[in-house]
Amino acid sequence: MPESPEVDALAGFLRENAVGARIEAVELIEFRALKTRARPLDELVGETVTAVRRFGKHLSLDTTGADLVISFGRAGWATWSDGTAPTDDAGSGQADGPAVLARLRFDGGRELAVTDAGDWLSLGLSVVDDPTEVSSIAKLGPDPSARGYSQADLDAVLVGRRKQLRALLQEQESLAGIGGAYSDEILFAARLDPLMHASDLTEGERARLFVALRQVLAEAFAACVGVPIDRQKAEKAARMRVHGRAGEPCPEGDGVVVDVPGTKGAGQYCPARQTR
């Protein structure tokens, strides 16, 4: 799942390569990906990209006309071609690569393709006048990676909440941009059990969680800078300390990384380090 650090890196890449480009053609390959049926991708043809913005795990290509919001979901991503080499149907040079759902072709032969590698469609495209017209963006909570995000902001999310920490960190209405991978990494860094209820945290544990939250995200944002967009997912997986590493030794001391109960293998933690 692309989370805020990877989406931010993609936004930065597109600011450098797509802003100022004119959209000459669009192609919608998977009609279910378009969430604004009354507003087709064709509206974008002839418009020029003016800005690229990130909203949590969503990305907006602003143009001189309507904006295109890309909601990546669980397995969505994007590929880019500068027009110097042909692009295959997978957008990755592999026959079994992710399915291309739509393409935007720019002047100069450049092309942006949006893809989905999941077993079920999770990526969504919306043609809107304002990104906040997309309900999932309108409901986003504060971005914990933003400058000025404070302990008080996090405490407002945690105090009194009878919800498990791992689920709460992924609640986009409370904390924008965090998914399963970084929630696992943050809780490991904070030495907190992912199944603990937020309301059970002591003041010291809340402080520890805030430090881990800010540190893990800051390191992830920095690590994503300069990584080619087609390598972002692989590089992210390689950086994980516990997420996706069930059965491996704990990276810090005794113990073995295991699946978080109830996640069907989607989350991992180290019981030796993360149990009260």
What count of domains describes the coordinates? 2
CATH superfamily of the largest domain: MutM-like, N-terminal
Helix content, binned percent: 25-40%
Number of helices: 7
Number of strands: 10
* Rg, nearest Å: 20 Å
Under CATH, the topology of the largest domain can be stated as: N-terminal domain of MutM-like DNA repair proteins
GO biological process, one term: base-excision repair
GO molecular function: 8-oxo-7,8-dihydroguanine DNA N-glycosylase activity; damaged DNA binding; DNA-(apurinic or apyrimidinic site) endonuclease activity; lyase activity; zinc ion binding
Keywords: DNA damage, DNA repair, DNA-binding, Endonuclease, Glycosidase, Hydrolase, Lyase, Multifunctional enzyme, Nuclease
Pfam families: Fapy_DNA_glyco, H2TH
Describe this structure in words.
The protein is 26% helix and 19% strand. The protein is an alpha+beta fold and 276 residues long. The protein folds into 2 domains: 4-138, N-terminal domain of MutM-like DNA repair proteins (Alpha-Beta Barrel); 151-269, Helicase, Ruva Protein, domain 3. The strands form 3 sheets. It has a 4-stranded antiparallel β-sheet with strand order 1-6-7-5, with no helix packed on it. The chain has a 4-stranded antiparallel β-sheet with strand order 2-3-4-8, with helices on one face. A two-stranded antiparallel ribbon has the order 9-10. β2 and β3 (58-63) form a beta hairpin. α1 (4-17) packs parallel to α6. The protein is elongated and about 60 Å long.
